[in-house]
């Protein structure tokens, strides 16, 4: 099962934010990597998606478009070329993401002081801990200073 976030161009193909992809062409989907492994090699080929939309299964036929996408290694990480740039390949693209959907919600003016206080107190906590952290860094880099040094002069 794979939940969709903001689908971008996926919406034009019938997908909606919040859809959960259950299967593609009969193959159960449990991760973004599984979904990608079916979509990427399928540019121009119709795929049958079964999605859970609000508790009901919907069957959609979606044809991925050919697009220049990052080349991925076996772990799903982008491959870089000799110049250090991300290598690209032509692959199938549906226009969906697995980023959770977030919505901004209006807050009453009375919520502002609490939000500001939270930010100020978190910043103050970091600032107050900084000297202690710097002492620890200095001790790690230069020693604790408690060791005995026996320099002799003649």
Biggest β-sheet description: 5 strands, antiparallel
Superfamily at the CATH H level of one domain? Answer: PDZ domain
- The total count of helices amounts to 2
Q: Give the oligomeric state of the chains in this entry, treating copies of one chain as homo and distinct chains as hetero.
A: single chain
Mean pLDDT over the residues: 82
* Distance linking N and C termini: 79 Å
Contiguous uncertain segments of 5+ residues: none
Estimated share of beta-strand residues: 15-25%
Quickly give the structural class.
alpha+beta
Count of DSSP strands: 7
Shape: flat
* Secondary-structure arrangement, i.e. CATH architecture of one domain: Roll
Q: Any idea what the radius of gyration is?
A: 26 Å
**From N to C, what is the helix and strand string?**
EEEHEEEEH
CATH class annotation of one domain: Mainly Beta
Question: What is the CATH third-level topology name of one domain?
Answer: Pdz3 Domain
Protein name: PDZ domain-containing protein
InterPro entries: PDZ_6, PDZ_sf
Pfam families: PDZ_6 (PF17820)
Brief synopsis:
By secondary structure, the protein is of the alpha+beta class. 25% of the residues lie in helices and 23% in strands.
Report on the architecture of this protein:
- The protein has 2 helices and 7 strands; from the N terminus they run βββαββββα.
- It is α+β, with helices and mostly antiparallel strands and 154 residues long.
- Strands 1, 2, 3, 4 and 5 form a 5-stranded antiparallel beta sheet that branches. A two-stranded antiparallel sheet has the order 6-7.
- A hairpin with a 2-residue loop joins strand 2 and strand 3.
- It is flat and about 65 Å long.
């Amino acid at each position: 099962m794979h939940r969709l976030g903001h689908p971008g161009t996926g919406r034009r193909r019938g997908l909606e934010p919040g859809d959960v992809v259950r299967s593609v062409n009969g193959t159960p989907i449990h991760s973004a990597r599984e979904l990608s492994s079916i979509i990427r090699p399928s540019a121009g080929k119709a795929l049958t998606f079964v999605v859970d939309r609000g508790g009901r299964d919907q069957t959609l036929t979606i044809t991925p478009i050919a697009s220049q996408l990052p080349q991925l290694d076996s772990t799903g990480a982008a491959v870089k070329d000799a110049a250090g740039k991300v290598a690209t390949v032509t692959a199938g693209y549906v226009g969906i993401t697995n980023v959770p959907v977030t919505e901004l919600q209006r807050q009453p003016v009375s919520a502002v002081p609490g939000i500001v206080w939270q930010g100020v107190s978190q910043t103050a906590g970091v600032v107050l801990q900084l000297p202690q952290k710097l002492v620890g860094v200095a001790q790690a880099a230069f020693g604790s200073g408690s060791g005995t040094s026996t320099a002799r002069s003649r």
